[in-house]
# Entry
Amino acid sequence: MPVFQNSQQFYDTVGELMDRAKTDPVVGPKIAKAGVILQFKYTDPDAVTTVNAKSKPTQPGAFVDVIHGPTTLKPDIEMTMQADVAHQFWQGKVNLVEALARKRILLKGNQLKVLGLLPAVAPLYKKYPELLREKGLEKLLAK
# Structure
């Protein structure tokens, strides 16, 4: 049984993490520095999140734009995975290199750019469980 009941619950958790990251003073500038459009496609449940670090952000205080759902933006990097894999990743439970090698995460685009973003997003491994607790979703931790 998948961790998330539906796409809305996924966007309310992992999606909100991305929304918070775009304004985070530590994480946001590092993601912006990558200068790429990165799209995440999820299954079980289906969801799409696109991070635009190529253009100037449209929201005041944001370092990048984050779009949930369909967009006309053409991604430079596309990563496809089950939503459960993303959930585990943001808890620090998924080794990206291993997940790519085992095809738990499918990557189209520059692998080195993706691996270069790992140190930038590392602070989110602590913020995601905090977000789940804040929302009363402790039961989802470490699943």
User: Anything to note?
Assistant: The helical segments are 7-21, 27-34, 83-89, 96-101, 111-121, 124-134. The two ends are 11 Å apart (CA to CA). The mean pLDDT is 95.
